[in-house]
């Protein structure tokens, strides 16, 4: 599949996530909803990994570049952020290992369930 179609699929999923976020009575980041939609489509085999492999690989390989504008944007607020440096560091130091632990546990649980069903390809 060509890269334009792959990008169209990925951005289409993002648009679906934005649409869902608009209609929910509570706030959920559309990026999270888009990832859930993409996961659902891949899990149900409606969308095959090969259909988004090249474009997805491009985004993963260049992920650091996408964060540069956000980091540079925070430089405008250095004075404001100085007041919150200690709480920010505590939150970061506590939540980062927590996210790693929960992610690892989730992957292990999924692999165990897939092996139990006999559908794991790992």
Question: Could you explain how this protein is built, in words?
Answer:
It is found in: Cell membrane. This is LrgA family protein. Its main location: membrane. It holds the Pfam family LrgA. The mean pLDDT is 90. The protein has one domain (3-118). By secondary structure, the chain is mainly alpha-helical. The longest helix has 33 residues, at 85-117. It has helices at 3-23, 30-43, 53-61, 63-74, 78-82, 85-117. Helix content is 77%, strand content 0%.
In short:
The chain is an all-alpha fold and 122 residues long. It has six helices and no strands. The chain has one domain (3-118).
Number of helices: 6
Radius of gyration: 18 Å
What general form does the structure show?
A: extended
Helical amount among residues, as a percent range?
Answer: over 70%
How many E strands? Answer: 0
* Low-confidence parts: none
Sheet with most strands? none
Average pLDDT rating:
90
Order of helices and strands: HHHHHH
Strand percentage: under 5%
Content-based structural category: mainly alpha
Number of domains: 1
Cα(first) to Cα(last) distance is 25 Å
Protein name: LrgA family protein
Membrane topology: Multi-pass membrane protein
InterPro entries: LrgA/CidA
Organism: Acidaminococcus fermentans (strain ATCC 25085 / DSM 20731 / CCUG 9996 / CIP 106432 / VR4)
């Amino acid at each position: 599949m060509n890269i334009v179609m792959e990008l169209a699929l990925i951005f289409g999923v993002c648009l679906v996530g934005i649409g869902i976020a608009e209609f929910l009575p509570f706030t959920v980041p559309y990026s999270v909803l888009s990832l859930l939609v993409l996961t659902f489509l891949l899990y149900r085999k409606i969308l095959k990994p090969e259909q988004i492999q090249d474009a997805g690989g491009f985004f993963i390989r260049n992920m650091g570049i996408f964060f540069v504008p956000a980091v540079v944007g925070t430089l405008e607020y250095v004075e404001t952020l100085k007041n919150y440096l200690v709480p920010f560091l505590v939150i970061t130091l506590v939540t980062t290992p927590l996210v790693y632990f929960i992610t690892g546990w989730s992957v292990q649980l999924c692999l165990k369930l897939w092996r139990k069903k006999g559908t794991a390809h790992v």
